[in-house]
Design goal:
alpha/beta, Rossmann fold, Helicase, Ruva Protein, domain 3, Arc Repressor Mutant, subunit A, 3-stranded antiparallel beta sheet, 13% strand
């Protein structure tokens, strides 16, 4: 016999089973208490909130509070809301055929009250899964009171020959249909103020009123919301009486550590591909991807009020892997390592994910994306390798680290690297630079030729970002590194010739 067949089918059987009715908030509180005692993971997939946001969520549920998640884009607000059904019972008994999931022992709609009085313990019941008890609405300016709460249904009134004063002519909206469950409103400030007013009674008095009917339907709900602080000024506002009735306001945030950001990106990004090419991403490269987001979140070109979503690093890493795949398909290699060229080829994942201020608009999205990649390289270089600026100081130890590289370039030599160069050729070209390979081995943990090529390129790019080397873009897929001073003198001679020709 199946588990489904063992469930009580009538109110009498349900009562004999020992079932007791609880409010949604009491049910969630008791289930949360059990989860905490069992040391279960409360919000799977939510990274970096264990000591900040999660304790506040626990407090809100334990306090029977409706709450709002307030934070910038890409801070897992919707994911948190959609994980709340885990704190509901697996199954909930409801009166069979009821539009608003009435409790068999405490029906609130007229139709179910009449059916309960008539049938008694023979009242038929159905079972609702926890997933069916969660409803969500994205707040948009066109949402109406009828959508949320309900309206009079003239067709029902005509076919059943009922007057408009009869409660049974009501067509229930999404909120009454979520009775005994969790209702979430995403982007609350986008809801028009007159519609927000309709939520006041639900939050405080726990009932709904439709078209001024003298009818009270006491709903049992957990109401939760999400909002972006930017929306308070750009698109709308949360009316003061509604904010006052939302018991807890919980502020989310971006990852507080680089490790948390990397964990989120690794968890969410599509990295396991099916093209027959293995893209191996070293730890330093994953760190670089996350460093670009860190730099974007403090860049003077980016609107910090809008935020930089974690979706940026996810999309960026996926594009990097795709570009590396393309190279492997063209070169015939079965295993490839990402390069800086792959980041440059993935700038569409950056430019589409950041809102620019006026200065950024003047620079242009592509230039800002390249600027952020450069800042990311510089930030990671400073963390992983010795201070490049000290090469110009009095510290002989610091000077000795980069001196062989700089002297090699100062002798007039250059290095050209390309996106479509096979890994062995890429490695051979870079290992010609004296003193470069030992730095990549020591500070970036690169060991094989496949790993050493991209790592050595990173060291050169880091020196360029610290104004120790010059870099010139030969074409869209090829760059050249050379001595900074010779590059500057060459540029001056070129300008002089152009002036003489004029």
């Amino acid at each position: 016999m199946t588990r489904e067949a063992l469930k009580p089918r009538t109110r009498g059987e349900l009562q004999a089973s020992g079932y007791r009715s609880r409010s949604v908030k009491q049910e969630m509180r008791e289930n949360l208490i059990a989860a905490i005692r069992d040391r279960r993971t409360l919000f799977p997939g939510i990274v970096g909130y264990d000591k900040t946001v999660v304790p506040q969520l626990e407090n809100a549920i334990l306090s029977h509070h409706d709450f709002i998640l307030l934070g910038l884009r890409g801070q897992a607000k919707t994911r948190i809301l959609r994980s709340l059904p885990a704190f509901l019972d697996e199954w909930l008994p409801v009166i069979a055929g009821c539009e608003i999931n009435d409790d068999p022992f405490r029906p609130v709609c007229r139709k179910c009250r009449a059916a309960a009085a008539e049938r008694g313990d023979a009242l038929e019941i159905a079972w609702l899964s926890r997933e069916e008890r969660y409803r969500e609405k994205l707040a948009t300016p066109d949402v109406t009171i009828a959508d949320l709460i309900g309206d009079v249904d003239p067709i029902k009134a005509a076919t059943r020959k009922l007057t408009f004063a009869d409660e049974e002519v009501i067509h229930y909206g999404i909120i009454p249909r979520t009775h005994r469950g969790i209702f979430a409103v995403n982007e609350l400030p986008d809801l028009q103020p007159r519609i927000q007013v309709g939520l006041l009674n639900i939050l405080e008095e726990k009932d709904v009123q439709i078209r001024g009917f003298p009818v009270r339907i006491p709903l049992d709900l957990l109401l939760v919301f999400s909002a972006n602080p930017e929306d308070y000024t750009n698109r709308g506002n949360i009316i003061t009486p509604l904010r006052d009735r939302i018991a807890s306001q919980i502020t989310t945030h971006y990852p507080l550590t680089l490790e948390d950001g990397m964990a989120i990106t690794e968890q969410e990004a599509w990295t396991t591909r099916d093209a027959g090419i293995e893209v191996r991403i070293p730890a330093w490269f994953r760190e670089l991807v996350e460093e670009i987001a860190v730099q974007a979140r403090k860049s003077e070109y980016v609107d910090q009020g809008s935020g930089v979503s974690a979706r940026m690093t996810i999309a960026l890493l996926e594009n990097v892997i795709s570009n590396a795949e393309r190279r492997g398909l063209r070169t015939g290699e079965k295993r490839v390592e990402p390069r800086l060229a792959d980041l440059q080829a993935a700038i569409s994942a950056i430019s589409g994910k950041v809102e620019l201020v006026f200065e950024g608009e003047q620079e242009g999205p592509v230039n800002v994306a390249r600027h952020l990649i450069g800042k990311g390289v510089k930030g990671l270089f400073a963390r992983r390798l010795p201070d490049a600026y000290r090469t110009k100081g009095k510290d002989p130890t610091a000077n000795s680290v980069y001196r062989p590289i700089l002297e090699w370039f100062s002798s007039g030599k250059t290095v050209e690297v390309s996106d479509d160069t096979p890994a062995p050729e890429f490695y051979q070209a870079l290992r010609e630079v004296e003193g470069l390979e030992p730095l990549a081995r020591k500070h970036l943990s690169a060991t094989t030729p496949d790993e050493l090529g991209p790592a050595m390129e990173f060291v050169l790019e880091g020196l360029h970002q610290n104004s120790a080397l010059s870099r010139e873009r030969v074409d869209a897929a090829q760059v050249s590194y050379r001595d900074m001073l010779k590059s500057m003198l060459s540029g001056m001679r070129t300008r002089d010739r152009e002036e003489d020709e004029d």
